[in-house]
């Protein structure tokens, strides 16, 4: 068995992959948010449509997108494996549960939070990525150049109060998931120190609040502007 196979089959190796893929997805959230915030520019969607066209035509972005889907899949697979291993290591439930005194709610429910986020991703990708790639997208033009009117697709979706509510609620679950996952990833990688760990936790808490809040703000603003 090669060292790669040993790493992938060991609990430590799987936790490391969970941490690395998690950190990559955290970085992706920042980049994705930066692009999505252009939806709020008061230019009728011009900035966002040009941004979407650039992203779609850039070969590097295409490779990163494939990598992103792969990392999401790996993150989900190893989370399931590790959750099952944890349950198998404790086949008999404690007579008296005192979990709330030993860990925060988010850390005890990462599996549930991750499942909800996965459902959101599937719905989100179906409504946007799949629709833009394979559906019928209206066209618009700026300075005589035609662009797919991706903004119109997004604005239509965010005009639906049920979808907006689902989106905002999902961002709440994402916030809880990040509140534990951010610091946990650094700890798994061994980047924990009595001097720096408190700072990492504070940064992680701030990140877990700010990023989902800004994501949730976008559909809310667009809904009330419609």
UniProtKB/TrEMBL annotation:
Gene3D superfamilies per UniProt: Fumarate reductase/succinate dehydrogenase, transmembrane subunit
tRNA-binding among keywords: no
GO cellular component, one term: membrane
Claim: Transmembrane is one of the keywords in the record: yes
Membrane spanning stretches: 16-40, 60-81, 110-130, 150-176, 203-224
Keywords (A to Z) from UniProt: Membrane, Transmembrane, Transmembrane helix
InterPro entries in UniProt: Cytochrome_b-558 (IPR011138), SQR/QFR_C/D (IPR034804)
This protein's name: Succinate dehydrogenase / fumarate reductase cytochrome b subunit
Lineage: Bacteria, Pseudomonadati, Bacteroidota, Cytophagia, Cytophagales
